[in-house]
Amino acid sequence: MAELMPPDTRRCTYFFLYDGSKVRGEGDPTRQGICYFYPEETPLDKQELMCGQLAGVSRCVSELSSSPVHTLRLRRCKFAIHMMEDFFWALGCSTEVPTVSVCELLDHLINIFCFYNGPIRQSYQLNSKETLAAQWARYLSHVQSGPSEIYNIFRCLRTVDSTTVDPLLLLKAALILQACQRCPLVLTGCILFRGRVVSTQMSPQLTMKVMVQESETYTKSQRSNGASTSCSLGAPVSSTAVFLTTSELQYLQSTPVNKNVSPFSPPLLDAPPKKTRLSRTLSDTPSTESEPPRLQTPQKLSFSPHMSESDDSFSPAPSQSSADSPNTSPQPTRSPLPNGGHAVETEHKLSHHHGFKSNGGSSVFEENQCLNGDDVNGDAARRAVFDLQGDDSGNEQSRDAQMVVGDSGVCFRKAESKHPPPPFTCALDSLEESPLIPKMLYMHRVNGLVLALLVEHGFMSDAASMEEVYHSSLASLNGLEAHLRSIAAATPGTSGQYTFAHYDCIQSTLTTNVSGRSGGAPEHPFVRATSLLHSHFCDTETLQEAIIRNAGVAVYGTRSVAQVTYFQQHSGSLRNSGIPNQQDSAFSLPSKARHRLLKHGVNLL
Amino acid sequence: MAAKKSTLKVILLGDGGVGKSSLMNRYVTNKFDAHLFHTIGVEFLNKELTVDGYKVTLQIWDTAGQERFRSLRTPFYRGSDCCLLTFSVDDSQSFLNLSNWKKEFIYYADIKEPEKFPFVVLGNKVDVAERQVSSEEAREWCQENGDYPYYETSAKDATNVAVAFEEAVHRVLAMDDKTDYLISTDTVRLHRKPRSATTCCS
C-alpha cells in the first residue's frame, strides 16, 4: 500500500469515515462510501485503497474472531478502528503514540461529532457530505491543537493555572454558574477562559466537548469581531443545538446542583431506580442485565485503578454486550438498532462491568499478545526498570524491540480490558444506539471569557429566563474577565532541572512543565518515555512504579488510583548503562520526584 | 471638548454589605435582588448615557467590601474618573470607615491631586427605619473632607440612585473641562518661552 507518513509530532496521520452502505454492489465505486478523508489532499485512488483495505481487513478479522477490531498496525502507522452499523472509522497515528491514546482520540472525535450533529446516520441523511466533512475537519483540528506532544498521550482538560489564579476567582466562577442554575431551564454549565477551564459543573468529557464550540466562537470573534448566531441579547450571546447521551443527561439530572467533576462518586445512588445507571460502585443496585458481568469480574468493583470506564473507551462493545452474554462483551456493533433504538439502559451499566474475557480473536496484525505476561509479572512489577537502549533519535531496531514491551503490547484485548487509570472516560458514553437527547448550548462571551450553559430547548425561546440569566451574570463575567486578563500573561516555563507530567485521572487534568516550545526537541525523550510508561501502566494493572531509561535519560513513573506522575531529572552525569545496579542514578528518581513536585502541588508522599 | 473621553470609569467603594452591587444593578438594569452574594473581587457594568449632547459610556465598577478581598480589588482602582464612597445609613461603622476607603482609593489609584479628585458620597439604605447615621452627620463629614456632594439613596426602592450616578458623571465632565482648559494654557506657555528666548538673543 501507499507509503505511510513518517512519524512526526503530528498526532494524526490519517483519519477517515467510510460508509459501507453506499458500496453494496460489485459496481459501486469505493469513493462513494468515503464520507471524510484526512489529509484531504490525499489522491482519491489512495483514499479508496486505504478505505477499502482497512475496512475489508477489519470486517474479515472481526467476523473470523467474532470480536471487534480496535487497532490495526500497518508498517509505521497505528490505526484505531471503530465500527458501527455500516460506518467505519479509522484514525492512524505514528506508532510512537500509545495505542490507548489513539483509540481514545478516535472515540473522542466521534463523541464530539455526535454531540454537535446528533446520531451519525441521521446527520448524514440530513446534511450534505461536504457540510459534515467541514465538521470533521474542524473537530480533528481541535483535538490536535494541544500545545505540546505530551497532549497526544493524555486526553485532558486544559485548565487555568491554579498556581497563578487566586482561588477566590475560581470560587467566583463557581458562584456564577450556581447563580445561573437558579433558572430551572439551565442544566449545567462551565466557564472557560482562552481555551482553558476556569470552572465546570460538567464531567470532564462533557466539558471537553463544549470546549470545541468555545474555541470555534473564539476564532470567529477574533476574525470578525462579532459572534455567530445571535439572539435578542446581541452579539456576545450565541447558541447551538447539541445532543447528550442518556447517561450524560442522567448524570446531570441526578446530581445536585453544582456537583463537581467526580465521575467516580456514585452520583446516581439516590436517583430513582431506573435501569440506566452510571454508577460504578459496590452500591450499585443490581439489575438483571448487569448481574452476570458483575459476578464475573468482582475485582472491577473495588476502587482500583482498573475500575475505570476507560475500559470501554475504545470499545464499541458495551451497547452490544448487554444484549449478549457479558462474556462476549466486545462485540462488533452491528446492532439491530438503527438510529438509536433501545438498549441505552443497559449499555452504560455494562460498560464498566463488562467482562474482559478474550474471545481469543485478535485483530491486530502483529505483536498482539506480546505482553501477555502481565498476569504473571503483574505482582512482581511493582518496581520495574526497563532498559531502553538506544538513544532517542536513532537506533530504530532496538527501539522497536523495546516497543514490544512498551507499546505494541497494548493492543487489542488487553488494552481494552485492563488499562488502568480512569482518565479515559470519554467513550464511557458509547454513542452507538444510544438515543441522543437534543439540548441547547448557550454561550455568552466576554472577550476571552465564555460562560457556556447546557439548557433546555425552552430556554432559548423564553426571553424572560434568558434575560434573567444574562443580566444576573453579566457584571460578574465582566469582572472575572478583567481579573483573569490581568494575570493571564504568566506562562510557566520549563524549570530546567527537571521535567514532569502529572495527570489527574479523576478530573482529567494534566499538570506539566513540558512547554512544547520550539518543537519540543529537548523534551522529546521525556515524552517518548512517558508514552511508553503510559502504555505499560495501562497494560499492567498492578504496576505502580516504573523507571524507564536509556544511556542518556531516565524517567520515573508512578501512579495511584487517582493520578499518574512522570518525572525526569536533568543532571550532568547519568550512570545508567548496562544492568541496573545500586549506583544507577535512576534509583534516586523517586525521592527526587517526591521532593521536587511538592511545590507543584503534586503529593507523592 | 471634542476629545472628551467617551468611557467614564466610576468606582463604588465602601464596607461589605452597604449595597454597592445593588446600587449598580438598580441603576443599570433597574432590578433589585435581596439575596446577592458577596462580590468577589470586582465586577462592572456599562451604561450608555447622553450628557449635554455627548454619548458617554458609563462604566460602573463594583468592588468587594470585605477586607479579605482587598488584594483582588485594589489593582482595579487605577484609571477611575470618579469614586463613589458608599456607606449604609443603618450602619455607623460603615460611615466611620469612609475615610479609610478614601485613603485606600487615593493610594492604589495613584491619585496625584487628591483634593481635586471628584468623590461623591452615598448614604444607602434610607428605606430602613432604624438609622444610625443622620443626614447632618453625613453632610458634615462631606463638608469637612472636600465639599463632596452627598446623596441619600435606596437601591431597594430606587430612591435617588439615578440622580447620584448622574451627579458623578457631571462631576467628571466638569473636571475634564477644567483640565482641558489647563492643558491648553500650558501649551501656549511652552510655545511662548522659546520665542521670548530668541528675541532675547537677537
Automatic annotation (TrEMBL), chain A:
Organism this protein belongs to: Nothobranchius furzeri (Turquoise killifish)
Biased composition (Low complexity): 313-326
GO cellular component, one term: BLOC-3 complex
Domain CCZ1/INTU/HPS4 third Longin per the UniProt entry, residue ranges: 496-594
Gene name, Swiss-Prot/TrEMBL: HPS4
Comp. bias intervals (Polar residues): 279-307, 327-336
Region (Disordered): 260-361
InterPro entries named in the record: CCZ1/INTU/HSP4_longin_1, CCZ1/INTU/HSP4_longin_3, HPS4
Entry superkingdom: Eukaryota
GO biological process, one term: melanosome assembly
Protein name listed in UniProt: HPS4 biosis of lysosomal organelles complex 3 subunit 2
The CCZ1/INTU/HSP4 first Longin domain, residue ranges: 13-118
UniProtKB/TrEMBL annotation, chain B:
Statement: the UniProt record of this protein carries the keyword Protein transport: yes
Substrates-to-products reaction catalysed: GTP + H2O = GDP + phosphate + H(+)
Gene3D superfamilies reported for this sequence: P-loop containing nucleotide triphosphate hydrolases
GO BP term, example: retrograde transport, endosome to Golgi
Subcellular location as annotated: Cell membrane; Cytoplasmic vesicle, Phagosome membrane
Keyword Cell membrane: yes
PROSITE patterns according to UniProt: RAB, RAS, RHO
Domain of life: Eukaryota
NCBIfam families: small_GTP
Stated family: Belongs to the small GTPase superfamily. Rab family.
Protein name: small monomeric GTPase
Lineage of the organism: Eukaryota, Metazoa, Chordata, Craniata, Vertebrata
Designated gene of the protein: RAB9A
